[in-house]
Amino acid sequence: DQQVKQNSPSLSVQEGRISILNCDYTNSMFDYFLWYKKYPAEGPTFLISISSIKDKNEDGRFTVFLNKSAKHLSLHIVPSQPGDSAVYFCAGSGNTGKLIFGQGTTLQVKP
Amino acid sequence: ETGVTQSPTHLIKTRGQQVTLRCSSQSGHNTVSWYQQALGQGPQFIFQYYREEENGRGNFPPRFSGLQFPNYSSELNVNALELDDSALYLCASSPTGTRVNYGYTFGSGTRLTVV
């Protein structure tokens, strides 16, 4: 049972443009959603989170949108930079604190 | 402030052997979780320890076991290794018991290869 899904394995965008990474979930009990970024040979790094009672959270170039009725969230990166090239994971968290991750989306930002 | 450190970084074991992976939590963090990341997949929750007690477990068999020590460092032990245990094992720490709206701090992981 895949509770969190990232259906796009990869995404390529031009530097300066917007990157939109998508994530779908099935578990209505998640109360937080988180995005992590992972470079090769490093552990995942926390990027941004959103409470299930919010529909938007913004932090600099990163904005996460949550659509609870559609059970969908997205991460927007504007403007995209070559250093943003990495694997991005979305994750849901319930009251146990454990994270349920999606499969990841590899973002490539071309100069 | 030191981050989460894991050892060893790489390990090769033979099927049927036992392995111990180690993790030093970030200073001040009393909660540690272990995740298994298979190739091309997202990390999967193995278990979590809070103040030396296991307080959550994922869908992993009993041959996956753990310990948390008074200094909040942690071990993951896997007995009777199988080929499918080959993966990146990630340790993550947090200063809270269970609530993590701001994210865990992950180590760089131990790459385990079972042959």
Please provide a written account of the structure.
The complex is a heterodimer of chains A (111) and B (115). By secondary structure, chain A is mostly beta strands. Chain A has strands at residues 4-5, 10-14, 19-25, 32-38, 45-51, 56-59, 62-67, 72-77, 86-93, 99-101, 105-110. Chain A is globular and about 40 Å long. Chain A starts with a strand and ends with a strand. By secondary structure, chain B is an all-beta fold. Helix content of chain B is 0%, strand content 50%. In chain B, strands 2, 4, 5, 6, 9, 10 and 11 form a 7-stranded mixed sheet that branches. Chain B has a 4-stranded antiparallel sheet with strand order 1-3-8-7, with no helix packed on it. In chain B, a hairpin with a 6-residue loop joins β4 (31-37) and β5. The N and C termini of chain B lie far apart (37 Å). The mean pLDDT of chain B is 91.
Largest sheet of chain B: 7 strands, mixed
Counting DSSP E segments of at least 2 residues, the number of strands of chain B comes to 11
Radius of gyration of chain B: 13 Å
> What is the element string of chain A, with H for helices and E for strands?
EEEEEEEEEEE
Q: Largest chain interface and its two residue counts?
A: A-B, 27 and 30 residues
**Which series of helices and strands of chain B comes N to C?**
EEEEEEEEEEE
Structure annotation, total helices of chain B = 0
What class do helices, strands and sheet pairing of chain A give? mainly beta
Q: Quick one: biggest sheet of chain A? A: 6 strands, mixed
Give helix % range of chain B.
under 10%
Q: Percent of residues of chain A in beta strands? A: over 45%
Please count the beta strands of chain A (DSSP E, at least 2 residues each).
11
Total of DSSP H or I helical runs spanning 4+ residues of chain A = 0
Distance separating the two termini of chain A: 38 Å
